[in-house]
Specification:
2 helices, about 90 residues, mainly beta, two-stranded antiparallel ribbon
Length: about 90
């Protein structure tokens, strides 16, 4: 079985409000893409082992969100969707 992020793959949109001011926040993509200059080219599961979150075990994708109203950056956990390879 494999798991995938529906937001990263364009099946859904990240709809999250800022925890500080409650305005809609902007999705800036996977946290792993911001971990270093070559992180976007590394295997997703490899980055999940080093980001400090239990996202690999819990089948989640950590997204970076940004509120343009109050300039807060925060992380949002997205539950990944299970896909059966046949």
């Amino acid at each position: 079985m494999t798991f995938f992020c529906s937001v990263c793959n364009g099946f859904s949109k990240l709809n999250v409000n800022c925890p500080k001011c409650n305005h809609e926040a902007k999705d800036c993509g996977r946290l792993g893409d911001f971990m270093g200059p070559y992180s976007a080219y590394l295997a997703i599961d490899e980055l999940k082992n080093t980001n400090g979150y239990p996202d690999l075990i819990n089948h989640q994708c950590v997204h970076l969100a940004y509120c343009e109203s109050c300039h807060l950056e925060f992380h949002k956990m997205i539950s990944e969707t299970e896909h059966n390879n046949i």
